[in-house]
Structure formats: structure tokens, C-alpha cells
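Per reviewer request, we include the raw input and output of the structure prediction for the construct analysed in the revised manuscript.
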Amino acid sequence: MGPLEKYTVLDLTIARAGPTACRLMADWGANVIRIEPPAAPGASSREVSGGRHNPDSQNLHRNKRGVTINLKSPEGHALFMRLAEKADVIIENFRKDVKHRLKVDYESVKAVNPSIIYASISGFGQDGPYSERPGVDQITQGTSGLMSITGEPGRGPMRVGVAISDTSAGMFLGQGILLALLHREATGEGQWVHTSLLEAMLCKIDFQGARYTMSGDVPGQQGNNHPTASPMGVFDSADGKINLAASSDRMFFSFCEKMGATHLAEDERFSSAGQRAKHRDELWVLVNEVTSKVPTQELVEKLNDAGCPCGPIYDIGQAFEDPQAKFLGMAKPVDHSELGEYKLIRTPINLSSFPHPDRFRRPGPELGEHTDEVLAEAGFSADEISALRASGAI
């Protein structure tokens, strides 16, 4: 099953950031129970991602089981707390006022399970001047400064093409949960683990942020070129475009030798990394003159052989069909009772003691698909489950 199979996780999350953390736990074998409110009579079971059977939802919620609980009802709240007593981890991304109103906040859960690892994601943090604001990925891309360094100079801010703040916050929360579990193994103590989209992105901008915190330097947009190293970026080939990294002295002079461009190596403007950065615009034009005469595949093979990282620029389909991606087996099949077999994207972590299975254990669950099964495992009798359903608690 995986290294996390002894842990039970209650998943109270919606949207993307929280489910990303839950998916990490589920992929490595944890018993992840996705808790959603029951559908109102006559209502559909659609969710925030737009459809329970769409690629987004299935990729986020694979390997989980689904339970419905009405946390607003006394019976539903009591049911949740009974499950929480035996759980190892609870993951939520409610607004602060919502989780306290529902009485599923950390202190409420800690009262019945002192060893619980309670994990939270918010938009801007659990406290502070923006803590009550709703937060979504694109807002955080702007607030973190990421959009100001993405895109081409003079073209205005540009969002990254994936929900990077959501997925980054989810991955960081997953790491925090694992750290808290290690601490509990040593001490028996539970704790509250939390992060936010803003914290994740201020960390994720990495050296671009450190340029400001250390030196007061505010980076700008550089388009497809590396912000500090040259030549490193996108160049034309005879039949398309390539990514090329030849910024160190070794790589640059190897590039010049391999491509018969010794005139560039002999040019004083390009004699060192500092000089190449200073004259980056002129260098780009001259390197592009060289690469634009050679087909993409030839450039990739020739320059990699010379120790210069070089690669094609794929669309998403080409990326998954590339021989290396197929060898790595990044897309794994799963069986769905209605949709049949399809493939989802596996976790990128590799553990020698736990090889990736050939298939995912289960697809994303239907609304409440495993309610009876999970409650029976938790010790509820058939009569108790019937009574909970009659009361509207499940």
C-alpha cells in the first residue's frame, strides 16, 4: 500500500490547494476519507472543479474514499467528531470563521483527540490584515509578485499557465504534515500545521525574492531568457524553437566549438559570465544566428553531447509522448465504473522500497460513495447508519 498506510486522514478540503495535500497522503497509501456535504434533494453532485468526472476532479481525488456528512447538523457534527477521535490527520481549507462556526477548528478537534495533526491552508495566512480575505491562485500570483516577473518586458503582467500557488501550497502543507507525523512518532504530541498560498509563493519565487531581501533589487520581466545568466533561454532552430543553456564558461565555449562559432568565443564581450550577462542582447542575436540554421533534433543531440543542456519546446501532448516521459511512466491507468479505464498523472516522488504500482487503487469517488463502508469500519451499526441517513446527517 505504501509508507503511509497506517494513517487515516479526514479530508475537509475543496478547490485545489487542500486536495493537493490530501492527494500526496492518498498516493502513498494513507486511508484518505473525503468528506463532503450531502446533496440537497434534487441537486446535482457537481463540485468546485466543475464536474466529478472531469480530468481535474479525478486527478485531484484519486485514491480517496468519499463520505457525506452534514457538519451543520448536531448528528453530523457528532459523527465527524467520532471519526476525528480515531483519525491521525485532518486537512481543511475553510475560512477561519467557517471552521469555528462549524466547531471543527483545531481546538475543538484537539479536545477529543490531543494527538491529532490538524493541517490548514488559507489564502493569506491564519492571522494578519488579510487573513479574512478569500484567496485563489490567480490573486496570489499577483500579490506575491510572480506575475510581475512572468512574461515579456513591456507587455504587462502575465499569469503562469498552471495553478502554481495552489499546488505549491498543497505540496508544502503535505511536507508539513509529514514533519508533524515524525514529531508525533517521537513525542506522541499532535499539533496544528498551516500554510497559505501567499507564504508558498513568496517562498517559491526563491532567488528572485532573495534578490530583493538581500540587495533591494526588484526583478523585472525577462521573457524567455534567464534573468541573470546568458546565453540561457529560447532560440530559433531551422524548424522551430529550442531551449538552450550555455551560460557557464565551460558550456559556452563548448557550444562555440561544437557549432563552429569560434568567433563568439574569441569576442571580448563574451569572455566571461559577467561580460555575457552585460552584453546579453547582442549575444542572443549572434547565438540565434547560429542555432537558426540547424534543425531542432540535431541541435538537441549535438549540444547535449557537448555538455550544453538543450531541449525541444513541446506542447502538452508531445511532452507526455516523449520517450523519456513514457519510460518514467508518469501516466498510470485507473478503472472507473462509469468512465472505464483512463490515465492520471502519478506523484513525481520515487521510493526504492515502494515502487509505483502499475495502476491507481481507485478513481475519484462519487458523492458519498463509501459512506456506509467507512462508517461500518468505524464501528457504526447498520441501524445507526440508517438513523443518521434518516436525520439528514449523511
